[in-house]
Every structure is written in C-alpha cells, then in structure tokens.
Amino acid sequence: MNITGFVCFLLFLALVAAIAIYNTRKMRLNTTAAYFMGNRSLGFWMVGFSLFLTNMSCNVLIGENEFVYTNDMSVMAWGISSILAMIIVAEFFLPVYLKMGAVTTPDFLGQRFGPRLKKFVSIFFLASYVVSLIPTVLYGSAVALNGIFHVDEALGISYFAAIWLLVIGVGIIGCCYTVLGGFKAITISDLVQGAALVVGGILLLAFGLRYLGQGSVVHGIQTILASKKEHLNAIGGSHDAIPFSTLFTGMFLINLYYWGMEQYIVQQALAARSLSQGQKGISLACFGKLVAPLFLNVPGLIAVHLYPHLTNTATVFPKLIGDVLPPVIAGFIAAVVFGAAISTFNAGLNSSGTLFIMNLYKQWRRNAGDRELVKAARIFQLSLTVVAMYFSPFISRFNGGFYTYIQKVSSFFSVPVFTVMIVGFLTKKVSEAAATIGLIFFIVTYMLSQLVFDLPLHYLHVVAILFVATVVLMLVVAKWKPMTTPYTLHNQAVVDLKPWRSRHWFFLILLILMAAAFVLFSKAGVAQ
User: Fold this and answer.
1) Taking Cα atoms as reference points, which of 243, 300, 233 lies closest to residue 64?
2) Which of 53, 354, 362, 448 could staple 194 via S-S, CB 3.0–4.6 A?
3) Distance (Å, whole) CA 299 – CA 144
4) pLDDT for res 1
5) What is the Cα–Cα distance from 135 to 394, expressed in whole angstroms?
6) Euclidean distance between CA atoms 210 and 215, whole angstroms
7) Nearest CA to 103 among 367, 275, 355, 281?
8) Whole-model pTM?
9) 244 vs 454, more confident
10) pLDDT single digits (tens) 417-455
C-alpha cells in the first residue's frame, strides 16, 4: 500500500476518534456506572453495532477466510447459526439480567448459588481474557496490519520486531479509548466502525470479484460458481473439520454461552437503556451476522481462484486487500480492520476491569467509593495492557499451535459454566453444592475425553453429551440435597423492562434468512 492509502487509514481513524471525543466531551467518568456501563444509556444502534463489531476481531477476519481457502464454507456455520442463540438470549436471558440489575453475568450466579461460585467464575473469566482473548486480539491485529502495510519491509526490520511494534501501537490506542473515554466512547466508535465494516465488506466483495473477472463483476461471480465448487459448501460432512450435525449439539451450546454469558459480549446489551432497546440491538447484530460472510468468507472464495498455491494461508485476507483494492479504499479497509481489532480489545479490557472491580476488588474494599473504584480500574487496565503487549508477540513463536491450544482449553470451562447457569435459570431448588459438583464433573470428564481417551466423536458432540450428563447429575444431587428455600428472582431493575412488541416477527424473519443462507451455500444451492 502506498502513502495515499496510509494517509486515508490515518484520516479515518482520526475521524472516528473525533466523533467519539465530541459525543463524550460532557460525560463525567467518576462513577462505576458511567465508566463501565455508559450510565446504561445505550440505544439499540449502539448496542447492535457494539455487539457486532466486538465479535469481528482480526482473528475471525483472518481465520475464517483462511479456513474457506483451505477447506470450504462450513466455517460459516459458527456465525450464521449463532442467530438462533442470540434470539434466545434476547427473549429469555436479557430480561433476567436486567430485572436483577446485573453489571456482570456472574452476578446471576452470586444471587442464584452464592458468592463463592460468583468469585470462581469471575476469576476464570479474568484468566481467560488475560491469557487468551486480549493477547491474541493484539497479535491478530498486528499480523493483519503488517500484511496490509508490510511494516517489516518498509522499516527494514524483522517480522517479529514489526509485530511487536504494531502490538504496542494497537495496545496504546485501545487502552487510551478505554481508560480515558470509558464504555460510552467505545460504543460510539463501534457505531461508526460497524457501519464502515459493512460498507468495506461490500467494497472488498465488488473489487475482488471485478479483479477476479478481469474487469467484470459478473465474470468474477461466474468464475467462482464454475469451478472449485467444493469450497462453496457450508454443509460439512461427518469427516470435515466442522460437521453440519454439530450445529445441533456442542456448537449450539457454545454459541448460547458466548452470546448469553460471555462478559465482554453481554456487557454491551446490559448497558441498554431499556429491555426493548437491548432486544432491538441484539436483532440488529443478528442482521450483521447475516451479511458478515461478505468479509469473513467470500474473500476466501475469491482467493481460492486468485492464489491457487499460496504457502502462507494466514495471509489470504490482507493479501487480497493489498492486491485488488485502490490505495484509498485499501487504506479505508485497513482502518476498518484496525477498528475491529480495537473494538474487541476495548471490550475485553473494559469487561476485565468490570469483573475485577465489581466482583473482586469491591469485595475486598467494601467501603471504597466510586472515585477509588474507577481509579483502581484504570490502574488494573493499564497493567493488563502492558502484560498483554509484552506477551502477544511471542505467539508467533508457537507456529500457530498456541492459539489452537488456548481455544481448546477454553472449552474446558465455557460449557461447564454455561451448564451451571442454564440449570440456575430453569430450576429453583438446585443448590450451590450441586452446581459445584456439576462444574467439577464436567471439567474433569471433558479433560479426560480430550487428553486421555481417544473417542471416535467430534469434540462438539462430546460437549453436548457431557452437558446432558452434567444436568442430570445436578438434578440428582439437588433431589438428594435441595436448597432449603427455593430461589426467587427479585426485581432490582434500573431500566424499563417493557419488551419490544414486534420482536417475534423480526425473530421469525431472522430464522428464515438463517435457513436460507445454509440452503444457498449447499449442494441444493451454489455448491451443486
């Protein structure tokens, strides 16, 4: 990319920052409600775009396009099938969180089962963000930006040094957003960046098809549809990396956990100014998931035809941007990619501060006022950023294995936590003892299934089987030793709990479009 593209990149980032600063200039950040939740004042546009962009990290942009290039469209299932999980969250989970006035998702565990389980899950969330989420987001963004701008070549430095330099840059900018601007500044920038991501995806698709078709978009589409059609299939077989059957077992459970219980995601919806606005925001994010294949998957399809013998497949997405786009638009897309990285980083950093202060520090310093809590949050977030910036570049030394390892290890805890929470949602007498036993049982048995026994089952099917077994175990323990007083959800809401009246019609449309997307990319559609 030439100097024109780089200038466009900087100008767009400056525009987003200026919009965020202008809209938060009068907002005081001296309370935890303002700093962590934006005073619960978000409308559905901010909720929707924040959810959407927080999910669109560089790791996803790079990883899914690489998967399509090396395999097929079956990776699309993770995003498209999540629409069902998001609808369930909007209809059933969000009303419970808002009714109890939750700031973090472990708040529900604290009310339902007791403070010990709340503290354990909060520590787990923090550990996963420190070890997995924040460092890998920084590393993924550095890889993408180096692939677009070729920083190592431009500065005459090693690849590792370039990654470290970019990690520091992304970390400093993201930390400034979070520490100086708070949650509201993050969501305002997400609104602008989210809209830009949709526009950028359409531009990349149009220019990519035109480049492939040697000046004709139609010819480019015909090229994709005429050959290598195995890459067009989103219906994975039993021997594929993502079998279609997993949509109905472990994938559904993990999606429901991610969109309904993962703190850095759910916090975007908890900051809505009403239940109705939160439900509309989640629906807007669902529409975003429907258009996401434009930049998550289709560029990988184009690359299959442009680069049939690419050795470093992780460079598929940034290479396509550099090759097919004019410099000005390439700079704009680079800024959008950078914005996606910043959004996920900011969400992780803000949620880490929320969990640490509200669920741990506040329990230790019971008499601490809002000013002390906000100050402690900023110190914690700065410290976390420094640790992540130091650690992130070394991910490149693991030759791709480290990130896969982290993702697999996270499954040891995500679905167990989901299992305990879902039982808490649906029952009244399951005790803390039953929840603790269930949590330990799931973690131990899943670890054995993956590390000791060689089971002839996909790990997502194993997750689903263990989910059912753990639920049964918890119910049996609860039958033997139930809670003395059945749990009652008390109304502690600080926002309007009136639901969105038209939501069911929109939910139905979303489900129909979700099914249509799978039909389109199948042997009954374009993969015929």
Assistant:
1) 300
2) 53
3) 14
4) 56
5) 10
6) 5
7) 355
8) 0.88
9) 244
10) 889 999 999 999 999 999 999 989 998 998 888 778 877
